[in-house]
Specification:
heterodimer, A: OB fold (Dihydrolipoamide Acetyltransferase, E2P), 2 domains, six-stranded mixed β-sheet, five-stranded antiparallel β-sheet, 11 helices, 18 strands, about 30% strand, elongated, B: MetI-like fold, about 75% helix, globular
Chain lengths: ~350, ~270
């Protein structure tokens, strides 16, 4: 790391740990978040992603290691001295204030003149497309509207980094998908760094420039959504991001002759008639369809392999009717995939 | 304690008839004495209370107001003590609640216990302890010894109200305030104080009501001074102008009842 990369990084962790008694919530994490990118911290609950966010915000202080914001070390600085703002998981709107007062709170504290404050608040409400809600109280808003107000309240301060702690978690699926697109859009327009915590891999894949996959207090992999999906660095990443068939090394030995654990995505596997000629560079295995799960847009097949083990195959329902699909149960099939798609994984 | 989320209210549940009778009986038992006190404030008899009263009159209110100057010094003292004890309780009680709810420190549970103890402790124990403590340290009985005695249980009431409210207030609100640039004092002023405002008011009113009619602790910490409840107590042994005591009692009931009603209203509203 040299100074040039320091100035590029909006957030930098250097061997940061945060221990709560015996629990190592964050365990020796080093990472860089670039200025202006949409960065997601993805992981199951308890993996340390929220603690990382709180370390950036200043609600937590590292047990060891250093945190830099735009090149300046911030360890020991309280939240109110940091140029970052947070959108909380429960939104944390102030119930005794109107929407307008909520959004203007940060500006009021910083003693921004009234005229400018008014202008900026109405701009922020415009940005989240809720200008007509200014006089309402938080209790009079729907979940989705509260979420937008929380976003406006943070953005109005023009922070250099915006922290979002699972902000879409409480919304229903439809609204969540709308907000994903809108959040990404807002991020592009305001051009500031977004650090987004989520346990939803689809959400992370949809919005992020880069993703850090968290597991048990450390980072398993950092990369673009395509890198994370196509080239999972570990069995954990392969299993957590999307669905994956993990083939243990002993089973792999029997199936393909290589004694190495590998992963193969269900959508990369083709299911064809037994005896179909195998092309160069393809792997072919035979098995029996054990179960068919019809999911409308596509169907998931669980295929028990001749050599032991089971693979999940996903196929879009292009030409088949549900009758065709369901009758596949018990059928013997041939599974093939291009070898470039299977990923040999390090055993940890 | 208040697990409202986990226990949805039963839909249109009807209590069995026997239970209704029982509830009515208990309420009657609790409130009948008040009715009797109220009734005999209007009786025409001066020395003995016979049932039913031989006649009704408003005369005792006139007597209490104009012919009995001995009522007013105790009344004034009681109001002053209640006001000061309530103020002390508001400041100390809310500070303790804030400290206990925000920080985890060694001895936190012990402090919680010690703060709540005076309300569970019999007043006579509190009274005797305070009296011997004052004696030991050579402190003369004064207005302030009464205030200290009352503050011991007034603090609990304020503390309980405020801590319950703080538990319901999401911690993230205070974090959000800090995140938006407010230091601890600004967060207290703009976020915490409005959140606990009605709880403070309710706690304060309850504390005032408790202090205003306190007898036992006061007996031990007042020395020669007479608060209103002690004055009432002393009147019971004198047969002259008995209904005047009832008139004063009605006044005390009003002064204590109304704040409690308001306090209950305030805490109820904030539940919704």
């Amino acid at each position: 790391m040299n100074n040039a990369s320091n100035s590029l990084a909006a957030v930098r962790f250097e061997h940061v740990s945060r221990h709560f008694g015996e629990v190592r919530a964050v365990d020796n994490i080093s990472l860089e978040i670039y200025d202006g990118e949409f960065f997601s911290m993805l992981g199951p609950s308890g993996s340390g992603k929220t603690t990382c966010l709180r370390l950036i915000a200043g609600f937590e202080q590292p047990s060891s290691g250093k945190i830099y914001l735009h090149g300046a070390e911030v360890s020991g600085q309280p939240p109110y001295e940091r140029d970052v703002n947070t959108v909380f998981q429960d939104y944390a709107l102030f119930p005794h204030m109107t929407v307008e007062q909520n959004v203007g709170y940060g500006l009021m504290i910083k003693k921004v003149p009234t005229a400018e404050r008014k202008k900026r608040v109405s701009d922020a409400l415009e940005l989240v497309r809720l200008p007509q809600m200014a006089k309402r109280r938080p209790s009079q808003l729907s979940g989705g509207q509260r979420q937008r107000i929380a976003l406006a309240r943070a953005l109005v301060n023009r922070p250099r980094v915006l922290l979002l702690d699972e902000p879409l978690g409480a919304l229903d699926l439809k609204l969540r998908q709308e907000m994903q697109v809108e959040l990404k859009d807002i991020q592009k327009r305001v051009g500031i760094t977004f650090v987004f915590v989520t346990h939803d891999q689809e959400e992370a894949l949809t919005m992020s420039d880069r993703i850090a996959v968290f597991n048990a207090g450390h980072v398993e992999q950092i990369g673009t959504p395509a890198e994370i999906y196509e080239h999972p660095a570990s069995a954990f990443v392969a299993g957590f991001v999307g669905t994956s068939n993990l083939v243990r090394s002993d089973v792999a030995q029997k199936l393909t002759g290589r004694a190495q654990m590998f992963s193969i995505r269900p959508e990369k596997i083709r299911m064809v008639e037994i005896g179909t000629p195998v092309q160069d560079g393809w792997t072919a295995l035979e098995g029996t369809v054990r179960e068919v799960i019809y999911l409308g847009m596509f169907t998931r097949y669980l295929v028990a392999l001749e050599g032991g083990g089971e693979l999940t195959v996903v196929r879009q329902n292009l030409d088949e009717t549900s009758m065709d699909v369901l009758s596949a149960e018990g059928k013997r099939v041939q599974l093939t995939w291009q070898r470039v798609f299977d990923r040999v994984l390090e055993t940890k | 304690m208040f697990s409202r989320k986990n226990s949805p209210r039963p839909i249109a549940s009807r209590a069995p008839f026997g239970l209704k009778i029982l509830v009515a009986g208990v309420l009657l038992f609790l409130y009948c004495p008040f009715g009797i006190i109220l009734l005999y404030a209007f009786t025409t008899e001066e020395t003995a209370f016979t049932f039913p009263p031989p006649g009704l009159t408003f005369d005792w209110f006139r007597v209490a107001l104009f012919n009995r100057p001995d009522i007013f010094p105790p009344l004034l003292l009681s109001i002053q003590v209640a006001l000061v004890a309530t103020t002390v309780a508001l400041v100390l009680g809310s500070l303790i609640a804030l400290g206990v709810s925000r920080a985890k420190f060694f001895g936190r549970e012990a402090i919680t216990f010690l703060v709540i103890l005076p309300i569970a402790l019999p007043g006579i124990i509190t009274g005797i302890s305070l009296r011997s403590a004052f004696g030991l340290f050579g402190i003369d009985f004064s207005f302030w010894t009464i205030v200290i005695g009352h503050a011991t249980f007034c603090i609990v009431v304020v503390y309980n109200n405020v801590i319950a409210r703080l538990r319901r207030t999401a911690k993230s609100q205070m974090e959000a305030s800090a995140d938006l640039g407010a230091d601890s004092f600004q967060t207290f002023r703009h976020i915490v104080l409005p959140a606990i405002g009605t709880a403070l008011l309710a706690g304060g009113m309850l504390a005032f009501a408790l202090s205003f009619d306190e007898v036992i602790v006061t007996t031990f910490t007042a020395g020669q001074q007479t608060t209103l409840p002690i004055w009432i107590f002393s009147q019971l042994v004198r047969p002259r102008q008995r209904p005047v005591t009832n008139v004063v009692a009605v006044f005390v009931i009003a002064v204590t009842f109304i704040p409690i009603l308001i306090a209950q209203r305030l805490t109820q509203d904030s539940n919704d």
